[in-house]
Amino acid sequence: MTEEKTVVTTDFIRNIIAEDLKSNKHGGKVVTRFPPEPNGYLHIGHAKSICLNFGVAEENEGGICHLRFDDTNPEKEDEEYIEAIKRDIQWLGFDWQQKEYHASHYFEQLYQYAIVLIKKGKAYVCDLSAEEMREYRGTLKAPGKNSPYRDRSVEENLDLFQRMRAAEFEDGSHLLRAKIDMTSPNMNMRDPALYRIKRMTHHQTGDKWCIYPMYDYTHCLSDSIEGITHSLCTLEFEDHRPLYDWVLDQLEVECHPQQIEFSRLNLEYTVTSKRKLGELVTSGSVSGWDDPRMPTVSGLRRRGYTAKAVRNLCKRVGISKNDSTTDMALLEDCIREDLDSIAPRVMGVLKPLKVVIENYPAGQVEELQAKFHPKDESMGSRVLPFSRELYIDESDFEEVPPPKYRRLTPGKEVRLRYGYVIKCEKVIKDPETDEILELRCTYDANTLGKKPEGRKVKGVIHWVSAEHSIEAEVRLYDRLFSKASPDSGKDGSDFKEHLNPDSFLKLTGCRLEPGLLGAKPGIQYQFEREGYFCQDHVDSKADKMVFNRIVTLRDSWAKMVNQK
Ligand code: ATP
Ligand code: MG
C-alpha cells in the first residue's frame, strides 16, 4: 500500500486526531477499533469504516486498530460471520495485529459495572411489559413518564438484578434500565435499557448468560476497557453520544474515548444494510453473501474486484458528515483504473460466429505474436494460433450495417486484432430460419503488421482460432436493483420488488484464446473490446472454466439511462 500512502489525504476526523496528538490529549496515542456485529458479511460501507479506522491507526506512529466483535445479540450472530469478517478485512489489506476482541468476553466486567450503577442509584430493574414501556416512553413531541419501578431501593434492585442473572424470571419480564430523564428531548436518554433477559445460547459464552447487555451500554464500555482513544462511528449514532458519555461519566472510568461520527457510504442501485443483504440471501434472490452482484466485500472479491480498487473508492468518497449516495459509476471507475494497468489483455469471443477463410489452406497454423499489455512491456507477449476457421463475435457482423459501422459487413474489410485484414465474401444462412450460420471470408496475406495497400481499413475486431480456442462459460452482471435507491420505501414498496430481473446473464459456449487453458483463478484479464473478467473461484473448474465479467470497458449504463 506504499504507493497509495504517498497521497496525503485529510479530513475532519484526521484533523481532530492530529490536534489531539499535538495537545497530548490521549497520552499521544491513537487507538481505534472496527466493531462489526457478527450477524452478516461485510459490505462496501464497512470497507469505508475499515479504511478509516485501520488507515488512521497506520498513519500515526504506534497507532493501532482493534478488531472487536460487537456480539451482544446472540440471536442473529454466528461463528461463520466472524470468520468471513476476518477474511474480508485481511483481503482489504489491513491487519489488527492480533488485537481481536469480543464484547462478550467483557460480560462479567459489564455485569460488575451495572452493579456499580445500581449502587449509585443510576440504574433500576423495571417490570413494565414491552407494550407499557412504549406507552411510558412518550414520543418525539411528548415527554415520557417515569416507570412505577423507578424508585426501587438499591437493595431491591441489586437483588432483582442478581436474580435476573440467575434465570429466575421469564424472558422479557424485567429490564435493567439507566435512570436518566424521561422528559429528555433525546429519546435515547429516556431511561434506556441496559440489560434484558434472553435465554439463548451465545456463540462465545454458550449458556453461561441469560441476560445480555444492550448495544449502547456495551459499546462505550468496551471502548473504554480497551483503551480506545477515538471511537469512530456512523452518523446514526450521533444521538447516542450523550448516552455513551453518560455511562462512562457515571462509572468514572479511567479511559473515556471520544466518539466522532461520520456519514455512511451508500451506493446507488444497491443496498448497504446487512439485514437487507441477508434477506436477499435467505429469500434466494441471490446465490449467497458472495454472489458477484452483491455489494459485499466477498461478492466484490468473487466478481474480480481488487482490494486496491475498493480502498480507492473509499478514499475518493472521503470522510465527512454529509449524507450522500455514491454513484455506481465511481466504483466502476476505480476498478477500471486499477485493471487498466495490471490486467493482461487476452481475446475472448462471447457470442461466437464461425468465419471460414476460404483462401487459407486447411491444416495450416500460424503463430501470431501479441503483447499482453499495450504499454507495459514487462508483461511480455503470447502466441495466437491463426487458422482457416475462426470465431468472431456475433455483434461484430451486420448484414445491413448502420451508418458509420466499422466492423464486418458483406463485401467489406476489417482487421483481425494482431492479425490480417479479412473481407466478408458470403453469408451462409439456415434456409429455414434465416439464421446466420457462418461467414465465408478471404484474407489479404500482405497485411500482417502492415497497412493494406491502396485502401483504408478502420475497424479492428477480436477473434480466436476455432480449433485451438477453449470453451468457457461467461457470466455477465448488471446492477442488482433497477432503482437507484431501492432502500427508500416511501411508496411503501418492499426493496426486493426493485430487483433488476436482468442483473445476471449466463453465456455458455464462449470461446477463449488457448493460453487461458489451465489458468488459475485470481487473475483479472481484459478480454479485448469486451471488458474485464476473472475466473469465478467458486464454480470455475479446470475442465469447465467460468469467468465473471467484473466491469465493461466503458460506462454503458449512463448512456442507456439517458436514452430512456
Ligand atoms: P448494517 O446496517 O449493515 O447492519 P451496522 O452498522 O449494523 O450495519 P455493524 O456491524 O454494527 O453494522 O458495523 C460495524 C461498523 O461499520 C460500525 O462502526 C458502523 O458504523 C460501520 N458501518 C456500517 N455500515 C456502514 C456504511 N454504510 N458506511 C460506513 N460505515 C459503516
Ligand atoms: Mg450495527
Automatic annotation (TrEMBL):
A motif ('HIGH' region) lies at residues 36-46. It holds the Pfam family tRNA-synt_1c_C. Monomer. It catalyses: tRNA(Gln) + L-glutamine + ATP = L-glutaminyl-tRNA(Gln) + AMP + diphosphate. One of its GO terms (molecular function) is ATP binding. It is found in: Cytoplasm. Its main location: cytoplasm. Belongs to the class-I aminoacyl-tRNA synthetase family. ATP binds at E37, P38, N39, H43, I44, G45, H46, A47, K48, S49, T234, R264, L265. Residues 460-536 form the tRNA synthetases class I (E and Q) anti-codon binding domain. GO terms for biological process: glutaminyl-tRNA aminoacylation; glutamyl-tRNA aminoacylation. Residues 29-340 form the Glutamyl/glutaminyl-tRNA synthetase class Ib catalytic domain. A motif ('KMSKS' region) lies at residues 271-275. This is Glutamine--tRNA ligase. Keywords: Aminoacyl-tRNA synthetase, ATP-binding, Cytoplasm, Ligase, Nucleotide-binding, Protein biosynthesis. NCBIfam families: glnS, PRK14703.1. L-glutamine binds at D70, Y215. The gene is glnS. Its EC number is 6.1.1.18. Residues 343-444 form the Glutamyl/glutaminyl-tRNA synthetase class Ib anti-codon binding domain. GO terms for cellular component: cytosol. InterPro entries: aa-tRNA-synth_I_CS, Gln-tRNA-synth, Gln/Glu-tRNA_Ligase, Gln_tRNA_ligase_bac, Glu/Gln-tRNA-synth, Glu/Gln-tRNA-synth_Ib_cat-dom, Glu/Gln-tRNA-synth_Ib_codon-bd, Rbsml_bL25/Gln-tRNA_synth_N.
